[in-house]
Structure formats: structure tokens, C-alpha cells
Amino acid sequence: MNRTALVTGASSGIGRATAALLAARGYRVLGTCRAPESLPAGRRIADVEYLALDLADESSVEALGARLKDVDVLVNNAGESHSGPFEELPPDDLRRLFQVNVFGPVRLAQLAIPGMRERRYGRIVMVGSMLASFPLSYRSSYVATKAALKGFSNGARHELSPFGVWLTTVEPGSINTGISERRTKHIAADSIHRTDFETMLAALDRNEHSGVSPERVAATIVRAIEDQKPRQRYAVGSNAPLVFALRRVTPTSLVEKMTHRRHNLHR
């Protein structure tokens, strides 16, 4: 195996599981996290080289340009979870969220593509969310970033596949990664939405605690990388095959009701 893969957010969850699986399959793996020097030994993977990356900092993203020239596989996994009533989302925080979840990953892909195109081989996996296909109340900011990431991927794959470079999106459903403890939340003290917001969060946390493992998502990501002609989208978790099949034959209004009932919101 002479392929080099770079996985963002490789210190925990899906990113760590993906980096470990790629290393086990013989890839040379670069894994990013905000502070590699502070990463405990127990969270390090022996065959992974760790690089510093803060997606909120444009200069940190650009600093990876030289390493990305030689990368054959880019897994844009790192991102931030975000919740809040639409009317209460702070503009500055929205800008930061889009930098972390969209602009940073897109720029990393732009930096990697020229080398992939010249070698006539490349795989770019955007780790999205099933919420981009099944939007949920009080998650509009997060949904919007994942939908944007999918849009970039879906459009650009047509431009680059003639050069052997394939972009694809992996959409996890409920995954047990501990992200519920790290979710950014915005809600006013006197918000009219507080009861429904807290109901949604409780259901979201419950679903994630009972979700599939990061290793199962990692296996789907590796499948997307190693398929000869990767599909536009791979979904995993939350009964993905069934719910996407139902979505194709079910009225949108009913799909919305089913999504909200899963989170104890009766619309």
C-alpha cells in the first residue's frame, strides 16, 4: 500500500476509528487534532502521524498545504455539533460554525486536489449527517453546514471524476461517540422555545447513546474510499437503508412528522 490518507479529527470518535482502520489496512495515515503535543498516549494510534489543525483558524488550514500535496485520501471528519432555536442563533457563532464545518474542510480539499489530479487518483470523503436529509427543529445551523458540505461534494464530483478523483459524502445517523457532551447550545434564558428545545436534546442524547459504534461508521468510510467508483452518498446508522427507501415513496410532510416524533416533538 503506497497510499497516504489524512483524517481530520483523528483524536476521538469516528476520526480515530477511521485512522486506526486505514492504518491497519496498510495506508500511511496522517491524523489531525488541535494540539497533538497534548494528546494522551492512550489516545494515540501507533502507526498514525499526528498533525496540528484548528479548522476555526484559516492560517492553520493553509499550513497543511504542503502535506496535502502528497495525500491520496482525505477524510474530512472533524466538525462541531450545534443546537439552538433559529431566531436566537448568534451571527458570530454561525460564522465560526461554517468556518469549522464547511469552509475549512472545503479548503483542505482544494489544497489536496491538484496532487490527486496529477496522480490521477484521489478520494475525498466528507463526513456529513443524516440530518442533512432529515432536518430537525433546533438543529438548523448544524443541518445547514452538513447540507452545504454535501452540496460541494455532489457538485464537484462531476468535475473531478474524469481525473480519477472521487468525492463522496458519508452520512451517519445516531452514533455513540460522546458528542452529546461536546455539543454547542444556544438558547435564551427566557426563550419561548425552551421546553421543546430541551425535549429535543434529551431525545437526541438518548438516540446517540444507543447509536452504532464509530467503528461501524469507519468501515463505511473505508468502503467509500476503496470502491472503484464511489457513490454520491453512503449512509450508516439509524436504520439508514430503510428510512432512505421510505423517504423516496413517502410525502415530505409525513417524513417531517416521523423525524420529529423520533425526537419527541409532535408537530
UniProtKB/TrEMBL annotation:
Keywords: Oxidoreductase
Enzyme superclass (EC): oxidoreductase
UniProt-listed InterPro entries: NAD(P)-bd_dom_sf, Sc_DH/Rdtase_CS, SDR_fam
EC number of the protein: 1.1.-.-
Similarity comment text for this entry: Belongs to the short-chain dehydrogenases/reductases (SDR) family.
UniProt GO molecular function: oxidoreductase activity
Keyword Oxidoreductase applies: yes
Any Pfam family the entry gives: adh_short
Protein name, entry field: SDR family oxidoreductase
Entries under PROSITE patterns matching the protein: ADH_SHORT
Keyword Oxidoreductase (UniProt): yes
